[in-house]
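2 proteins. here.
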Amino acid sequence: MPRSAENAISEYRVLGSTGERVSPIGIGGWHLGLPNVDEPLSLRIVRTAIDRGVNFMDNSWDYNGGASEIRMGKALRDGYRDKVFLMTKIDGRSKKEATRQLEESLRRLQTDRIDLVQHHEVIRYEDPHRIFDPEGANAALVDARAAGKLRYIGFTGHKDPRIHLHMLDVAREHDFSFASVQMPLNVMDAHYRSFEKLVLPELVKRKIGVLGMKSMANGIILKSHTVTPVECLHYALNLPTSVVITGCDSMKILEQAFDAVHTFRPMSAAKAKALLGKTKAAAANGEFELFKTSSIFDSTATHPDWLGEEPPHVRQMMPV
């Protein structure tokens, strides 16, 4: 049997309460627009993944100045769009800016409907209130959903699990339920400011789709020399994740992801504990999870204009 057929994905997971069946791994969009990944390679990565059963595609309006969405849009031509569950993210907190970014994403991705759009980088305690303001970004996404431009709404963040819980609380106050939440889930997270311990149980209880990211923290976790890439992916797959999103900048790394899925078996509690034991000392202060302990992963901190204007009632209160 050819290796590509042997390692094809045949088992799928359910995305929360949506009923959508998604592949256990998804292709991360950020890597597709990196300088070391030319356009033909990015298209090959996406189409090979789809041909072998991956149906979840991750992206964001801000990835690589739009190059990631543009390339994915090209890769999804010729019938590939109908084979995938397409997700992207927007940074805008105002209704106006969120609408602008969504329209641009639709054009770049060459589609009239995105399956899942997520509020990106919810990393500040003020973000939920801006998003759920009457003139905030969620109003834009709800309108777009009603117009058929998107199907589901979620949010992402990488900074602090308590901010995720705050976002869920603010959504509930506005009688709104998210379809998905994206967050770091990896072999070090359990030891420091843990999304797994604080947020994951709440998502499972509410039947919200769990999108795991940063299983290797963009390779930084591997620099601890405590775990292998496949161990990182196996750990994330062992959690109640709907999808583990992984970045692939080469065919070799894509093959690694397929190998991880093919060799994955549910872990016993003892095996999971042993794996966490290998990372406990290295993970103690967040040294290898820099997205939690530094601003280098915070794109909206570098580009605050992407957030859009503060709500009107806030602007009225500001001193002249």
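next one coming up
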Amino acid sequence: MDDNFIANRKAARELLPHLIAWQKRNGYPVSFACEATLNIARQTPILEMMREARFEAVFVGIETPELDALKAMRKEHNASLPMLEAIQTLNATGSR
């Protein structure tokens, strides 16, 4: 489990091909889960590789849909894209 898998997107992009290759060589014996901000929905290539590497769960913390509350909590990054659109993207990517 990683608490924000895409905190370093470059590292995630570099790691995932190695996880995919290892999984293929070994018959996909491990499933992965991670935590991420909702902004992961913008990272379609990373999401595709995560699915191929057998990430089965992504926990996304959504404190609130209220913009003023997010600002008060200094979590404006959670409002940088439409929440429902991001959730739909995550669900659609995982169901392929």
